[in-house]
Amino acid sequence: MSEQHTYRVIVRGTWEGLTEEARARLLAEAADHGMASMRFTEEGSLSYEASPLKHFSMRYVVVSDAADGEEMAGALAEDRAETALRALGYGFRDLRSTVTDLDTMKINRKSRSRR
Question: Pfam families annotated for this entry (predicted)?
């Protein structure tokens, strides 16, 4: 069995070709998608600012084979984002992702001797 790694992926993009209905819905729900909503989840959390309504980000937790690496985790998250945004009827472009492998991330802790 292959080793699994957990990745945190931020998918960023730009709104494009939003219908008036989609734009109105995004503006009405903007308060629910601000800084406080930024969480990494398997289903993704959408965040954006209402003014200007231009860019967005979605945060995902992706668990996949370590051998497939960060590139695959990013591709999986971008695919999830595309699927979710299309299901909501939101137009978008220029998806790009930033991936962090939580299993290889180094944590710097302050030494007790530095107190």
Answer: DUF6204
pTM listed for this prediction: 0.86
Residue 99's beta-bridge partner residues? 9
Give CA–CA dist 26/18, Å, rounded: 10
Residues 6+ apart with CB under 8 A from 13: 55, 56, 57, 58, 81, 85, 92, 93, 94, 95, 96
Q: Rounded to an integer, what distance in angstroms lies between the CA atom of residue 58 and that of residue 71? A: 17
pLDDT in tens, 8-49: 999 999 999 999 999 999 999 998 898 777 899 999 999 999
Spell out the residues 6+ positions from residue 46 whose beta carbon is closer than 8 angstroms to its own.
33, 37, 56, 57, 58, 84
Confidence of residue 104 (pLDDT cuts 50, 70, 90): confident
* Distance (Å, whole) CA 94 – CA 14: 6
Copy the structure tokens of residue 41.
């989840």
Kindly report the length of the chain.
Answer: 115
Q: Give the mean pLDDT of 41-63.
A: 94
